[in-house]
Design goal:
There is one protein chain. This protein is of the alpha/beta class. The protein is built from 12 helices and 14 strands. It has helices at about 15-30, 45-50, 55-65, 90-100, 125-130, 170-185, 200-215, 225-235, 245-260, 300-310, 315-330, 350-360; strands at about 1-10, 35-40, 70-75, 105-115, 135-140, 150-155, 160-165, 190-195, 220-225, 240-245, 270, 280, 335, 345. A 10-stranded mixed sheet has the order 2-1-3-12-11-4-5-10-8-9, with helices on both faces. It has a two-stranded antiparallel ribbon with strand order 6-7. It has a two-stranded parallel sheet with strand order 13-14. Helix 1 packs across helix 10 (about 300-310), helix 6 packs across helix 7 and helix 11 (about 315-330) crosses helix 12 (about 350-360). The structure holds 3-isopropylmalic acid and magnesium ion (MG).
């Protein structure tokens, strides 16, 4: 099979980790008889420097013409980088929001898994981490506060900023369906998170989720208020399977969930639309402080490449081969600095990529 993959190396550690993911994909191609065709595009700071904007229309067209997008990370240090002196719509993050919206990537899947080998990195008490956890946050990605009308006005000499949170039934229904579909492939539990005790958009959210739930009698559904969910994530993360939530709640809760795994360098993500097309990226940021030093952990990007094989290309065996190679590397005691512990062997980004590629097998 020929896989047309658009790559966005991006900023900071992005180029290094994407290089390692390509290395692993190339090994998969050799082992399983596929052909990887890569086309790179610029986004974020790299695109601002080269083209004066964080994502050009040509770059979007290239992404659209491919089967899937594999991204590293974008953005720089918000305190020191000149990119953050630009108006908001010209900054690196605007490129990310633009690609999500232009490609209609409304479903964002963010797994948060406590790897047994990395349990020591979990910041929670041992009695909590001992239970382990494996959840998936299904975040709505193209609606809500992020894309509602916003403006700053001045009334009687007083500035007033307005952001609007809107959701249509249809926007809620399509993400809810994705949530239930994935719950059916997992442990069949779905927690829908909202703020229905205050917000109208949340009350509609809850009603539509209940409607969709009727078609999935095997899935156990519960509704949880977002503030309570933030508590439950640190009190007993093992209770969660699929968490379904709107854009901003999902942004915040997915950072919390990844933090309790203690290994954000390991977590992948997928942003999907209604077709097989998807954008795959690590859950972490561009870590400008360690960029170019061969210190970054490429595993989250490599696991994102695995998600890409699974969701866009239906290449489950190939995806399993990547996941197994990552497990093996951890069992063999290789660690980048972020997940290092006593008794393991510390390796750099390149060596980690080599080690995973070597362990790809049929
Ligand atoms: C994320 C990021 C983005 C978001 C930022 C960079 C706009 O935090 O992907 O979670 O808030 O969606
Ligand atoms: Mg975020």
């Amino acid at each position: 099979m020929v896989l047309n993959i658009c790559c966005i190396p991006g900023d900071g550690i992005g180029p290094e980790i994407v290089t390692q993911a390509k290395k692993v994909l190339d090994r998969v191609a050799e082992t399983f008889g596929h052909e990887m065709k890569y086309t790179d595009i610029l986004m974020g700071g790299a695109s601002i420097d080269a083209c004066g904007e964080p994502l050009t229309d040509e770059a979007i067209a290239t992404a659209k013409a491919s089967d899937a997008v594999l991204m590293g990370s974008i953005g720089g240090d918000t305190n020191t980088s000149p990119w953050y002196k630009l108006p908001p719509e010209k900054r690196p993050e605007a490129g990310l929001l633009k690609i999500r919206k232009s490609l209609n990537l409304f479903a964002n899947l963010r797994p948060a898994i406590l790897y047994p080998e990395l349990r020591g990195a979990c910041p929670l008490k041992e009695e909590i981490s001992a239970k382990g956890f494996d959840m998936l946050i299904m975040r709505e990605l193209t609606g809500g506060l992020y894309f509602g009308e916003r403006k700053t006005v001045e009334e009687n000499g007083m500035k007033k900023a307005i952001d609007t949170l809107t959701y249509t039934e249809e926007e809620i229904r399509r993400i809810a369906i994705k949530g239930f579909d994935i719950a059916m492939k997992r442990r069949k539990k779905l927690t829908s998170v909202d703020k229905a005790n205050v917000l109208d958009s949340s009350r509609l959210w809850r009603a539509v989720v209940n409607e969709v739930a009727a078609a999935y009698p095997e899935v156990k559904v519960e509704h949880m208020l977002v503030d309570n969910c933030a508590m439950q994530l640190v009190k007993d993360p093992s209770q969660f399977d699929v968490i379904l939530t709107e854009n901003m709640f999902g942004d915040i809760l997915s950072d919390e969930a990844s933090m309790v795994t203690g290994s954000i360098g390991m977590l992948s993500s997928a942003s999907l639309n209604d077709t097989k097309f998807g954008l795959y990226e690590p859950s972490h940021g561009s870590a400008p402080d360690i960029a170019g030093k061969d210190l970054a952990n490429p595993i989250a990007t490599i696991l994102s490449a695995s998600m890409m094989l699974r969701y866009t290309f239906d290449l489950d065996k190939e995806a399993d081969a990547i996941d197994a190679a990552v497990d093996r590397v951890l069992k063999d005691g290789l660690r980048t600095g972020d997940i290092f512990s006593e008794g393991c062997r510390k390796v750099g980004c390149t060596e980690m990529g080599d080690a995973i590629a070597e362990r790809i097998a049929r």
